[in-house]
Amino acid sequence: MIEWAMSELLNSDKAMKSVKRELDKMLGLDSLVKDHHLRNLKYLDAVIKETCRLHLALVTRTANQTCTVGEFTVPQGTEVVVNGWAMRIIDKREDCGMISYFPLQPCGRICTE
Known about the structure:
- It comes from Linum tenue.
- By secondary structure, this protein is α+β, with helices and mostly antiparallel strands.
- Helices cover about 35% and strands about 20% of the residues.
- The chain has three helices and six strands, in the order αααββββββ.
């Protein structure tokens, strides 16, 4: 996914300048970006989210046991195509446990209340 983000930034001078300006302001020239910095890097976070939206990650997984996802029963051994972007946002009132069947979320998971 990082390759897509860099490609998008390289194709947009305005976006690249905005990211560079934000990084320089928040971290300076001698720091590396760490996960905990993202909460303060609003523009970079938006670039990452937009990259995930534009370059949808479809992931194939095989159910390792029969399970129920919503109202659907998924038999053991069934190959499922998962929309990586849609799996990022899951209401906490739903069963977030179903994610264990689909261990790859390319951009991390955001559970909402």
